Amino acid sequence: MSEAIATIALAGNPNAGKTTLFNALTGSRQHVGNYPGITVEKKEGFVDMPSGTVRVIDLPGTYSMTAYSQEELVARDFLVKERPQGIINVIDATSLERNLYLTVQFLELGIPVTLALNMVDALESKGIRIDSDRLADLMRLPVVRTVARSGLGVREALQAALTHPRQSWEPLFISYGPDLDPVLGEMTKLISNAGFLADTYPPRWLALKFLENDLVVRQLFEADYELHRRLRDMADEVARHCEKTLKTQPEFLIADYRYGYISSILRQGVLTVMPDLQGRADLSDKIDAVLTHQVAGPAIMLAILYGLFSVTFTLGEIPMGWVETAFAWLAELAGKMPPGLTRSLIIDGIIAGVGGVLGFVPLILIMFLGITFLEDSGYMARMAYMLDRVFRIFGLHGSSVVPFIISGGIPGGCAVPGVMAARTLRSPKEKLATLLTAPFMACGAKVPVFILLAAAFFPEHGARVMFLITLAGWAAALVAAKMMRSTIIRGPSTPFVMELPPYRMPTAMGLVLHTWERGWQYIRKAGTVILAIAVLIWAMMTFPGLPQEIAAPYEAEMAGIQEQLQAETGEAARGELEASLAALERRLKEEALTHSLAGRLGQAIEPVTAWAGFDWRTNIALLGGIAAKEVIVSTLATAHSMSDAENTDFAARIAAAPGWNTSVAVSLMIFVLLYSPCFVTVVAIAREASWGWAAFSVVFNTAFAFALATATYQLGMSMGW
Amino acid sequence: MSTIVNLRQMRVDQRGIIKTVAAQGELGRRIRDMGLVPGTEVTVIGRAPLKDPVALRLKGFTLTLRNSEADFITVELPEDDLV
Ligand SMILES: Nc1nc2c(ncn2[C@@H]2O[C@H](COP(=O)(O)OP(=O)(O)OP(=O)(O)O)[C@@H](O)[C@H]2O)c(=O)[nH]1
Ligand SMILES: [Mg+2]
Questions:
Q1: pTM (predicted TM-score)
Q2: Is A90 left (phi over 0), alpha (psi -120 to 50) or beta?
Q3: Per-residue pLDDT for A322 more than 50?
Q4: Of the N and C termini of chain A, which has fewer Cβ atoms inside 10 Å?
């Protein structure tokens, strides 16, 4: 890649279309969604322009430039520290006034701003007309009309940013009225005389931020004690004055003046709202009248979730069968290899482990298609809106619903993207409670366990069992959140000041891309993490091998039968011999497993797990499940010494196996649903919160799950289930 | 004479002009960042099934707030509006 000739950042309000524009420019496929706050980290891309290669940065959306939230800090730090040549301020033209509030703050910082007036395609139906030339004149900056979704005007916007008339930083000056202007002037003079941070921030901007109580800026000033003290005295003085005479605070007065400045510009013929269209309720409002209706709203929400749930399982079953057949065929093929460690590794380790996971890919894809549709259409934001009142009771926030659903609130999700989606929550406490409880949901990796156990113990009620499990996941998450929020992560709830985006028809391309992106993550996990874990577990279940003195008698007996088999010709007698050979082989395998590292581990903890009804074989599978839930079923199958060919009637075997009954099955389902998040999720939690919290989630979830499973098992046993 | 009411008391479909915003701290900041400043015209367009939060239309977009947050905002109703 040749050196970039310039860096241009894309900045603007959440959901204004920055990432869509970024993708259109760079040809990349970053995640876009009709929900404010999708992008939480900056992304980089390169675009070839006639004058050379340009580095383009997609920033998280922000409404303001304060230091209240992580995203605002990311965006602000990038702008002041890396000083891009300019920014393209992506604006949702349908709410021009609010979007310009951020523009003004960029201008006060001095960055050369180019406005991309995005979503102009939606203006007409809203009855809004914008005179972009007039806007450009009045604000003295280039304005380009764009439709990022179709790529219209995006290169022109970048070109305009590159050839911006102002090539250096030059802060905009606006008046904040008779109460603030004098003191602002004095503070600015003090700061510029001191030369404080002169090459990073304009002095007036620092003064403004000081008045706005910006903690980060105030901290910067602590480096200069005397300056800080004088500025603070001035700020306190004017704050007292504002309180007394205007019953307000400087920071709010500043906001009012900024909006005043914007509306004075818009009033000069920039924005016209067509009167004949103004009264007409817009389409989104009409849809909302139904979808968020007091009675119909919640009913439709449940219906959508249930519908998605059943579609996933009925449609998903068909291609799932194909994938399973393919892997069964592979296993058969591998079965032709000479017996030995390699064959065992391939069949019991790799094919059973990875194949089991890949079998669920179709189901996962269908389920993510559904989630992507909910997110892209704008419905997810309505779910947050409708559920906020309920979630608040449990110390969560309406926005917690998104991470929950992605984690498996509709079975088939995955806690890794779910935990990451918790970033859209602005408050650290609610975010923490959300990401610690999201792993309780019935993620796609746990689903095979439920399907297996349901088939074995509730053969007629598979769908109902799945539905109850799903509800149990939600209930556990809410209860655990309440427990945490009233003990270790106490704190007030954050405001629910949220934008409801208009409903939009998701683009087919967008749906396919996102579904694929998430499905691919899953497949990649199967090929990397799961593969490694499957091999590791296989090794632990194989080594150390049986000592010769234990294996020898079995082998001798088997050899004897083999000889008889060769001599025998009678049909019935052959059958009998073969059966006893198979039985011997199974006993040998079982001896070997008991002797293996995994077997010993399983037996070591059996005295405790027996309270919940789990024998040592189940323990092996559960230990493996801490690494990845996907391996539970295949490990359980191997632990019951079943080769893949017999997998089909595994459910029947489990049902008949000694030590298994309905109580064990229910207890196991509950435990698998709730216990320790898988490794990848733990890493995600550590990244979003800290390693301490990640460790906490392993211990807490396992203890919580074990307590519930034990209670269920003991209750079930005493009832004689 | 115009009437001034609390935002919480407004009915669905009722329209008014924001008179005062008393919220402080982070809430005050976020409310203002989103454009809820005195002089702005707002319409209540709906309430969530449990009556809370409330959805507002202002400056061309839809915003949701909890009732406890709406409490900080007073709205002036037009003269012909009967509460
Ligand atoms: N009608 C229309 N919709 C658009 C246009 N550009 C983007 N969208 C849609 O607007 C929504 C938000 O787009 P994003 O690109 O995710 O917005 P963003 O600014 O990156 O949002 P955050 O990452 O949350 O800050 C998506 O549903 C897009 O499909 C446009 O020009 N016209
Ligand atoms: Mg984005």
A1: 0.85
A2: beta
A3: yes
A4: N
Percentage of residues in chain B with pLDDT exceeding 90?
63
Q: Is the bond preceding A544 in cis, omega lying within 30 degrees of 0?
A: yes
- Cα dist. A164→A18, A56, A111, A167 in Å? 19, 16, 11, 6
Q: Which fold has domain A177-275?
A: Helix Hairpins (1.10.287)
- pLDDT at position A720: 79
Interface contact flag, A259 B61, Cβ < 8 Å: no
Contacting residues of B for A264, CB less than 8 Å apart: none
Please name the helix (run of DSSP H) or strand (run of DSSP E) that holds residue A523, with its range, or none. helix A508-525
Q: Rg of the Cα trace of chain B?
A: 12
Ligand 1 binding pocket mutation candidate from A18, A26, A32 (most atoms within 8 A of CB): A32
Tell whether ligand 1 has an atom less than 6 A from the beta carbon of residue A377: no
pLDDT of residue A181: 94
Shortest distance, CA B22 to any CA of chain A (angstroms): 8
pLDDT of residue A641: 65
Closest-CA residue to A573 (of A555, A586, A560, A561): A561
* Structure confidence by residue, pLDDT tens digits, A417-429: 889 888 778 778 8
pLDDT, average across residues A624-648: 74
How far does Cα A540 stand from its chain's mean position?
33
Class level of CATH domain A6-162: alpha beta
Angle between helices A616-627 and A631-639 (to 10 degrees): 150
Phi, psi at residue A360, to the nearest 5°?
Answer: -95, -5
Substitution candidate for ligand 1 out of A149, A154, A373, A500 with most atoms within 8 A of CB: A149
Cross-chain Cβ contact A63/B63 below 8 Å: no
Q: At B6, is the secondary structure helix, strand, or coil?
A: strand
Q: CA-to-CA distance for A625 and A705, rounded, in angstroms?
A: 14
C-alpha A626/C-alpha A540 separation (Å) is: 15
Look at residue B25 in the predicted model and tell me its pLDDT.
Answer: 81
Burial of A338 (0-12, 13-18, 19+ CB in 10 A): exposed
Q: At A292, is the secondary structure helix, strand, or coil?
A: coil
